[in-house]
């Protein structure tokens, strides 16, 4: 009898980490912005949910922040101090390579109503709002 031929699959290093937001399977790759646990690739880079949401809000709302120290890029950005200076946090998002063009524009209720009126959308069930 011939021995079975098993394929060797790559091992993905994952960590199980229950959180208040629900059970999450987190990658052992840290957030490239603040160093906290990454929840996966967001906008081209490994990022935590907090940094991904901050980047998305900043782009969608076209935010322009001013560095608290007056020296953009000088403020430390880590998982403890990530919220201290928004200008430096956004700058670091861009420095690590997060892509502005990867942020999809959001649809407002008014946008949806207009698309429905123009019959570009057959029904509300055809779209998913953020």
From TrEMBL:
Record-linked InterPro entries: Nuclear_hormone_rcpt_NR2, Znf_hrmn_rcpt, Znf_NHR/GATA
UniProt keywords, alphabetically: DNA-binding, Metal-binding, Nucleus, Receptor, Transcription, Transcription regulation, Zinc, Zinc-finger
Superkingdom field: Eukaryota
Annotated Pfam families: zf-C4 (PF00105)
GO cellular component term, pick one: nucleus
Nuclear receptor domain segment(s): 28-105
Single GO MF annotation: zinc ion binding
PANTHER family associated with the record: NUCLEAR HORMONE RECEPTOR
Name of the protein described by the UniProt record: Nuclear receptor domain-containing protein
Organism: Hermetia illucens (Black soldier fly)
């Amino acid at each position: 009898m011939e021995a079975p031929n098993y394929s060797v699959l790559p091992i993905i290093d994952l960590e199980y980490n229950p959180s208040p937001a629900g059970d999450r399977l987190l990658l052992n790759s840290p957030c490239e912005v603040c160093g906290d646990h990454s929840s996966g690739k967001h906008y081209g880079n490994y990022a935590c949910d907090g940094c991904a949401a901050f980047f998305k809000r900043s782009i969608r709302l076209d935010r322009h922040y001013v560095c608290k120290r007056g020296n953009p890029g000088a403020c430390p950005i880590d998982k403890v101090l990530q919220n201290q200076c928004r200008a430096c946090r956004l700058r670091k998002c861009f420095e690590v390579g997060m892509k502005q063009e990867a942020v999809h524009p959001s649809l407002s209720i008014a946008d949806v109503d207009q698309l429905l009126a123009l019959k570009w959308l057959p029904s509300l069930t055809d779209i998913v709002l953020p």
